Every structure is written in structure tokens, then in C-alpha cells.
Amino acid sequence: MSDLKVQHILTLAELLAKGARHNFVSITTSSLGKNIHRSQQAASKHLLELEQDGYIERIRNGQKFSVRITQKGHAEMVKISTVLKSSLESAPSYIEFMGNIISGMGEGAYYMSMKGYTKQFKSKLGYIPFPGTLNVKLKDKKFVEAKRELDVHEGIMIDGFSDGKRTYGWVKCYQAKINNSVDGLLITLERTHYDDSILELISHTNIKKAAKLSGGSQISIRVPVSSK
Amino acid sequence: MSDLKVQHILTLAELLAKGARHNFVSITTSSLGKNIHRSQQAASKHLLELEQDGYIERIRNGQKFSVRITQKGHAEMVKISTVLKSSLESAPSYIEFMGNIISGMGEGAYYMSMKGYTKQFKSKLGYIPFPGTLNVKLKDKKFVEAKRELDVHEGIMIDGFSDGKRTYGWVKCYQAKINNSVDGLLITLERTHYDDSILELISHTNIKKAAKLSGGSQISIRVPVSSK
DNA sequence: ATTACTATCTCACGAGTAC
DNA sequence: TGTACTCGTGAGATAGTAA
């Protein structure tokens, strides 16, 4: 990535911040050391090495030095900054789950069609989902773990309710893209009926049909997240 | 600046580039080591330490691991990237010279009013400068050094010429701001009459009067440079 | 006050290897 | 194939100090 020593990055950054790009800046090794959280001796060595490698120029002025960053030094910093920035920006802004469809669409479907929930679906989503959930068995532990991370992200909250006999937990819905084409909602439940490795999806229409899926099919679910 | 170890920056950047921000990414310590130009053992240790410090999360999958960068790890990278980027951008885009006016405005003035030069001033600048140069004695060695750097920057080239008896060298003019208010031109000569530590300035009008300067006054000259 | 040498120490790295 | 020990080496850090 760079022939600039890693330990010198902070030092060069500090010089840059001091404005040493086009003008020679008077600086002492002790103040520089303080700023990079190293000793005076370390700062001195850094300057010596950076000079040796052509990343900076120094001119002596009696006892003190003035330092300027060279074209080469500047280019190197730009390179690092660009690489960092682009890897931060190129990060996909979704969480992806991979798994296989499992046939049973029992329990979930029953609960999701209860009036206490459908009322809220209508008002918060604008429609009542297709009566039935699509269940996906996650392929890998990592997806189970990723599921937990959903908590901290934005979702549509469907509140729990009581029908007099018992209470029903909340449901949180996340916009999801199935196989990168069909829209649906991934739901997480306050009280889970299945084990952790199973994902439940609901949708406006019958997802299975819309995405031409059958039992056992492999499936990808992407939940967009704001990159914060 | 950060409690993230410097040597871990590249490792985190590599994970970031692999897309480990929102999703767990399967990665082997040997491939990671290769990418950060370190050994498998070093990569292993980096992951161990990054995990310890809460910058990444890992989940084991048999023999392999999947890795994801945490909020904390991501924030740290954003911080570094921001600091770098802003110090690169906040660099002033001028070279500044500080010095004192010296009275003698002899030689330079004579040469600059020669027809071979004034012809070109008229065509390349649009005007003939005030007949007289302002001479500035630089306060510090570092400004003398900085003067040399001017060569690589943009300037208006006034070609040398011959009047039959002798030849006269070229003159390069740089836009300059005196005391951050009055415009002028800093000139460098192919053949210098003074020593290196003296700067010569010319202008449309009498700079001394315009900037209310007298012999001995301290003066600042800024030459804008493209930041490349 | 400076810078930077020498000596010392710490800890990051890689080699070898266990699991 | 994997990860991650232990251990030897040396780069890079600090302390002390000369100039």
C-alpha cells in the first residue's frame, strides 16, 4: 500500500496539520513528540527518517529546525487518505442473510393475521400482508449473529397488544430485498417461536410465487441500513 | 489522536475493504496477512487484539472465522480518515514570505524599464509596471529556501532578449499579495543581482505608497499556489 | 533552551509448531 | 487445509546525556 512506515503516518499528519505543506514551519521535536504522543527522541528520529526518505525537507536555523513536507510526502498522505476514504465509502449499505426456505409456514402466519397486528400493519405499512410467513433457515452461524445486530437499526415497530386472555409481543419489520429483486419485510419478534437460526419474512403478496421459490431453495435477503 | 494502535490501521482498512462493515466476512489469517504484508501470525494477533479492544467481532465457524467491524471500529476509522482528509484540505494554498523592506531600488528598476522587458509586460500582463522594484530582505533562512520552490509553480514568463551589446535573462513573475491586501508581482530573475535572501516585487502602482510602507517596515508576501 | 547520540527495553513480527 | 501458542530477533520506543 505504501513504503511510508506506518509509525510515520501520525507524524506526517501532524506536520500537515501544522501547515507544513507549502511553507517551512518552525517546530521543536519536543512539541512534535507531545502531539504524536511519543517522546522527544522518537519525534527526532521520525524527522530524521522522513527526511532521509524524502518525505520532508528541513532547514536548520541555529538550534531549531523548520520543516516542510515534500511533494513525495504529500502524495503519500493523499494516497493513504484516498484509500481509507474509499474503503469507508465502498462498504455495502445492507446486511445480507443467506439461507434456505423451509416449508412450515404455520405458527407465524396465525399470529400475523390477528386483528391486533393487522390493524397496525394497515396503518403503519399501508396494507395487510399476505397471510403467511416465509421461513428461511440461515446457512451459517454468522447470519444468526448478524440478526442480533438488526436491533440497532431502523425498523417499523408493530406494538404488542392484549386480547384479554393473553398478551402478544411486539413485531419489528425491516425492509428487505429477496434475491435482489422482490420486496418484502423481515420481521423480528419479541417472543420467538422458532430458534434463532430461522428468519421470518412477510410481504404484500405471496413471496414464494413472486420470487418463484420452492421449499429448499436458496435465498438471499438484504436489509438496507443507513451507514451512519 | 486515537487509542487504536497504529499498526492496526492497515488491518482494519483491509477488513473494511473486504466489506466487513455490516456483514460478517469469512477470512483466513493467512490471506489477511498477505494483504497487509505481514505474516499469518501477525494477522492472527491483530485480529485477537482488535477483538479484545472491541474494534471487531468474530464468530468461529469450525476452523475458520468470520469477522465484522463494530460500531466502535468503524467510528475510529472514520475519525482517522476525517482527520487526515481535513488536514490535507486545510493546508493553506500559498507560500508566504516575511521580511523587511530595504531602501535601495536601484538596479532592478533600471533593468525592468528596458524596452525588451516592458514590451512583454504590456502584452503578457496588460500593463507596464511602476518603474521601480520593491526589495525585501527575507527574515529567515526558511524563506530563502522556500523561494527556490517557486520554480515548480506557475508563473508568467518574461523572456530574455539581446540588445546587440549584451543579453538579458528571463524574468518569472508570480502573483503576490502584499500584507494580505495589495496586489503585486514577485519576480525571480535568471541572473540575480542581489543575494538569495532578497525578494523583488513589481506592481501596477507604487507598492510602497499603496501599502503605506517605508524603509525597514515588516512585510508579508503571499504567493498563491495550486494545491495539485 | 535546542537536537540527537548511546544504551536499554519493550513489544511487534515471523519461524516453528501444536491442535 | 485452519488458528494461535512459544520463543528468538530486531525495530522502535524511552532515558540519560552530550553538544
Task: Describe the fold and architecture.
The structure is a homodimer of 228-residue chains. The first copy, chain A, has 228 residues and is of the alpha+beta class. Chain A folds into two domains: 84 residues, Arc Repressor Mutant, subunit A (Orthogonal Bundle), CATH 1.10.10.10; 131 residues, Beta Barrel (Elongation Factor Tu (Ef-tu), domain 3), CATH 2.40.30. The first copy, chain A, is built from eight helices and twelve strands. In chain A, a hairpin with an 8-residue loop joins strand 10 and strand 11. The two termini of chain A are 27 Å apart. Chains A and B meet through helix 1, strand 2, helix 4, strand 4 and helix 7 of A and helix 1, strand 2, helix 4, strand 4 and helix 7 of B. The structure holds a DNA duplex (19 and 19 nucleotides).
Write the SSE topology.
Two copies of one chain form a homodimer.
Chain A: H1 9-17, E1 25-27, H2 29-35, H3 40-52, E2 56-61, E3 64-69, H4 71-89, E4 94-102, H5 107-112, H6 115-125, E5 134-138, H7 141-149, E6 156-158, E7 161-162, E8 167-168, E9 171-178, E10 182-189, E11 198-202, H8 207-210, E12 218-224
Antiparallel strand pairs in A: 1-3, 2-3, 4-5, 4-12, 5-11, 6-9, 7-8, 9-10, 9-12, 10-11
Helix pairs in contact in A: 2-3
The structure holds a DNA duplex (19 and 19 nucleotides).
